Amino acid sequence: MHLRTVLCTASALAFVAAAANAQTTITIATVNNGDMIRMQGLTDDFTSKHPDIAVEWVTLEENVLRQRVTQDIATGGGQFDVMTIGMYETPIWAKNGWLVPLDDLGEDYDAEDILPAMRAGLSHDGTLYAAPFYGESSMVMYRTDLMEAAGLEMPEAPTWEFIGEAARAMTDKDNEIYGICLRGKAGWGENMAFITTVANSFGARWFDEDWKPQLDTPAWKEAVTFYNDLLADAGPPGASTNGFNENLALFQQGKCGMWIDATVAASFVTNPNDSTVADKVGFALAPDTGKGKRANWLWAWALAVPAGSDATDEAKAFIEWATSKDYLALVAENEGWANVPPGSRTSLYENPEYQKVPFAAMTLQSINAADPSNPTVDPVPYVGIQYVAIPEWAGIGTSAGQEFSAMVAGQQSVDEALEKAQSLVAEEMEAAGY
pTM of the entire structure? Predict the structure, then answer.
């Protein structure tokens, strides 16, 4: 080998080593939902534009993610540079000084394009503290073929009475067809998110205007009895352990007549690569009981920078990439418009290509109909539809969720679950000084 070649090779290796040393690694904690898995698959687009930033992923199941990021940020642990959080945590954590403001993203980021409901829910005192990766409400997804075979027609705005009738009519347990799949897995963001929206639509509320817990009221009993009976009559076995991902799998396998859950699931149940019933799915608004409130929530899975990060600029660069208009175009180019993360930007819903997506209009209608400031039939002192926006909610919701999951599993009655939930909520709120 010539001396010049050796010197050039050594120089090149030194350059590569220097470049590697110049890299900053950011650690991103996220949930194991399909859109986030897709984001990880597209990370090369980010790193090609930011060769000085390396990305490490920590991907967790929903309940575990919430536990890990909450523990880390409350203790200033600094494990993560980007966290996937939601509308519940963002304003509370921002108020505590735990999050870095996102009011200085690039000029072409266009924060004004973020849907108003999402921007408001992810802000504190008018400043954005988390950028929505996707936004969602909830709606009914149903099998058009099974509905037709049952001799029924799904209204655009169904009642719970109709949902109950249709679920029982579509159920064929001998052939593993269950009329309805609903969340039963314990967790403040799992079964309690769904049960709380049911309660809202039946006229129930978590607290009265004096912060007295209301789970011992007739409205709660009616709502929870309806939910429990529906799952017993028309739900799949093991419903007490089913959350978003478990019910998604059941629906994609053709085992659910209806599924009432996050609007973001629409792209997964209609994707022929993953869903055996992709061409047989219809959509309707979340149900009501005629009392003025539908059982639809409002949520965003969003990306935020914890104050403990030592790579704030790099973390912001990643958030800017992942929640931008360009990212939506990148997904559309690779996966088609139906698989673009929904519910975050106004411009997406103005795009003629996206308007052709069969669930786009219903998703936007559901998001716009959700009102976190007025979530219940009777007045309440709190904000939040499927959660109560107070720091104590995570503990209260998790504990109550365990009681209702045990109820669905047949380990206790509706009355027992409500009595225990009422007691533990009252105890927690008294201890917190309400």
Answer: 0.90
